[in-house]
Amino acid sequence: MFIQWQADVAVHHDGIDSDHQRMFELVNDLYDAMQTDAPRDSIGKTLQMLMACTREHFEHEDRVMQEHAYEHRSEHGRKHAALLAQLDTFVQEFDNGKTAITPETMDFLKEWLVQHIRRDDMKLAVFLEQAAGSDSLP
Question: I want to staple 121 with a disulfide (CB 3.0 to 4.6 A). Which of 57, 90, 117, 132 is the partner?
Fold first, then answer.
């Protein structure tokens, strides 16, 4: 397994954690496809699934941030947009035969996902926990 879900990346929001776990699975699927020299069309399908899952997840997180009036929503959203742009460019280049999945690509995906969760999503998690705590006060 290339990337493993661990408690230190759980944000304790069921929907967000579920999305993250699915993204981990897809990154692992992509890594396995690279390691086994899977057919290019199979890798392409996995890339498309990762792109769709990432886009859906970012939309989900944005709704959560909007619902709770998260003060860092725009900054967080810019980071999401930057990654989506990078992924979109990579997928287009892959589809056009200009690039392939490499260990460096996999390291980038792993680092971005884990570091984004630890750095940015954990801030959101603390905010949501504090908001839930203040909602339960008399």
Answer: 117
